[in-house]
Design goal:
Blueprint: H1 22-44, H2 47-54, H3 58-65, H4 68-88, H5 97-114, H6 116-127, H7 131-134, H8 137-141, H9 144-159, H10 169-185, H11 187-194, H12 201-219
């Protein structure tokens, strides 16, 4: 019986390795970490859970961010950057002072209502006494356009005789954020104590209008 010549085994084709897009992977980690920290805080936030949801190793998280603390800081930077970018799109300079003040108030209220996770994240950072924001030069720098926008609006209103002089733009920014922040951060405790509706569309619309009215009455020149 003639021998059958064996064919040499073919080398297996190498399986192509998918290279992760660096920026896409980093952004995916940030998005998942944002949800994790907003829900569980810095101490309770779990990098194993973040890695599992992103379908990566925990080691890769630390490759991008070095530590859990740095990841939390990067999440804060991302969250604030979204708000600051939206503020720049308001184009308050195109509106008369009263309309601009009301638009700023309505935007701030709407942003907090639409992003309760942002409110929780800011509250968590306050528990940590703002140390992550304090260590981030980027976060400090991104506040300047927002305050500058308010300052220019106030100056324009004073020059036009419709806004009273002497209003500090940082104080006004703080007042507005305090009014808007409360409706989200303290909603559950306030509703429980006073049996007061803060959640329905009607209640939100009323609160939104009251904040805009209050802010304008505060700055206008009698």
């Amino acid at each position: 019986m003639p021998s059958v010549k064996k064919q040499p085994a073919r080398a297996a084709k190498p399986v192509p390795i998918k290279r992760r897009d660096r920026e896409r992977t980093r952004q995916e980690i940030l998005d998942i970490a944002f949800e994790e920290f907003a829900e569980n805080g810095l101490s309770g936030g779990n990098t194993d859970a973040i890695a599992a949801r992103a379908n990566i190793t925990k080691r890769l998280i630390f490759y991008y961010f070095n530590s859990k603390e740095e990841l939390f800081t990067a999440v804060l930077e991302m969250a604030y950057a979204k708000m600051r970018a939206a503020e720049e799109d308001l184009h308050l300079e195109a509106l008369v002072p009263e309309a601009a003040i009301r638009r700023l108030a309505e935007f701030t209220f709407d942003f907090h209502q639409a992003h309760p996770e942002f409110v929780r994240l800011v509250s968590i950072e306050n528990i940590h006494r703002g140390r992550h924001i304090g260590s981030s030069q980027r976060l400090k720098e991104m506040t300047q356009p927002s305050i500058s926008q308010i300052a220019k609006l106030l100056e324009r209103g004073v020059a036009g005789g419709v806004i009273r002089p002497g209003i500090d733009p940082i104080e006004l920014h703080m007042t507005l954020n305090a009014l808007s922040f409360f409706s989200v951060a303290n909603r559950h405790t306030f509703e429980a104590q006073f049996a007061w509706d803060m959640s329905s569309p009607r209640a939100k619309a009323q609160r939104r209008a009251e904040i805009a009215d209050a802010l304008w009455r505060y700055v206008r020149r009698d």
